[in-house]
C-alpha cells in the first residue's frame, strides 16, 4: 500500500501522503471522481486525495463535498475540516474534526527560486541566505542546500497559509510573512504572520522526504 507518510497530529487531526501507483479503477471502487476533470493524471491525483480522506476517517462523507468559489473543497456542516494537495505522483491530505487546517506538497525544483521576487519580501530572501549559510538541515539528496530547495520550502509554507485562509484575494509577498524558521534534521517549523485583515500568528510545520516538501497548519 503506497501510504508513504501518516501522522496523528492530535486527537482530532490526521495527515497522510499517498504515492500514486494505481489505476483509476482502484480508486473508483472506493471513492467518487470530481466532475469536469479530464486530464488522466489530474484525475488520478484528485481520486487519490479523496480516497485518503476516507483512509484517515472512515466516516468522512465524500458525497457531501462542495466546492467554494475559491475552488476550495469543503463540507457545509463543517463536520470535518480538510485540505488536499497534489504534486507529481503524490497526494497529501489533512483532516480534522475540530481545527481549521491547510496542507501543501511540492516537488523541490528551481522554479520557486526563479519566481522568488513575486512571493518573498527582501527580509524573507535574506532569511533564505542566512539559512543556507548556517544550516545543516537535510534535504536528503546530493544537491541539498541549493537555492531551489530553500525557495521551494518557503513557497510551500506560504501556499499552506493560503490554503488554510481559504478566502482568496491574497498577495503572497504582502499578506503572508515568514518571520522565523526553526530547522531540525528533515523537520521545520515556520513562525508566520497572515496580515490580510487583523495580523494573525500562524505556525507551519513541515518535513522533507523523497525530494518533496510537505507543509501543514492546524489552528
What topology emerges from the helices and strands here?
Elements: E1 3-10, E2 13-19, H1 24-28, H2 40-56, E3 65-67, E4 73-75, E5 81-87, E6 90-96, E7 101-107, H3 111-114, H4 116-119, H5 122-134, H6 147-165, H7 172-175, E8 176-184, E9 187-194, E10 200-209, E11 212-218
Antiparallel strand pairs: 1-2, 2-6, 3-4, 5-6, 7-11, 8-9, 9-10, 10-11
Radius of gyration from the alpha-carbon trace, in angstroms: 17 Å
**How much helix is in the residues?**
25-40%
Succession of helices and strands = EEHHEEEEEHHHHHEEEE
- Taken as a percent bin, the fraction of beta residues is 25-35%
Average residue pLDDT: 91
Q: Your description of this structure?
A:
This protein is an alpha+beta fold. Helices cover 30% and strands 35% of the residues. The strands form three sheets. Strands 7-11-10-9-8 form a five-stranded antiparallel β-sheet. A hairpin with a 2-residue loop joins strand 1 (3-10) and strand 2. The longest helix is centred in the last third of the chain and has 19 residues, at 147-165.
Brief summary of the model shown:
With 219 residues, the protein is an alpha+beta fold. The chain has seven helices and eleven strands.
What tags apply to this protein structure?
35% strand, 219 residues, five-stranded antiparallel β-sheet, single chain, alpha+beta
Amino acid at each position: 500500500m503506497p501510504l508513504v507518510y501518516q501522522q496523528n497530529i492530535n486527537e482530532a487531526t490526521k495527515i497522510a501522503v499517498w504515492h500514486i501507483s494505481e489505476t483509476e479503477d482502484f480508486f473508483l471502487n472506493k471513492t467518487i471522481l470530481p466532475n469536469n476533470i479530464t486530464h488522466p493524471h489530474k484525475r488520478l491525483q484528485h481520486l487519490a486525495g479523496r480516497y485518503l480522506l476516507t483512509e484517515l476517517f472512515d466516516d468522512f462523507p465524500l458525497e457531501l463535498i462542495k466546492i467554494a468559489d475559491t475552488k476550495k473543497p469543503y463540507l457545509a456542516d463543517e463536520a470535518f475540516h480538510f485540505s488536499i494537495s497534489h504534486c507529481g505522483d503524490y497526494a497529501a491530505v489533512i483532516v480534522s474534526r475540530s481545527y481549521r487546517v491547510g496542507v501543501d506538497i511540492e516537488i523541490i525544483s528551481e522554479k520557486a527560486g526563479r519566481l522568488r521576487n513575486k512571493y518573498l519580501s527582501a527580509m524573507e530572501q535574506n532569511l533564505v541566505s542566512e539559512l543556507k549559510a548556517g544550516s545543516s538541515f537535510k534535504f536528503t539528496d546530493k544537491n541539498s542546500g541549493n537555492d531551489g530547495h530553500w525557495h521551494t520550502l518557503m513557497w510551500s509554507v506560504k501556499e499552506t497559509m493560503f490554503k488554510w485562509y481559504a478566502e482568496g484575494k491574497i498577495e503572497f509577498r504582502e499578506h503572508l510573512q515568514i518571520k522565523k524558521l526553526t530547522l531540525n534534521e528533515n523537520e521545520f517549523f515556520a513562525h508566520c504572520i497572515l496580515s490580510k485583515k487583523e495580523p494573525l500568528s500562524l505556525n507551519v510545520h513541515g518535513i522533507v522526504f523523497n525530494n518533496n516538501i510537505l507543509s501543514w497548519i492546524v489552528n
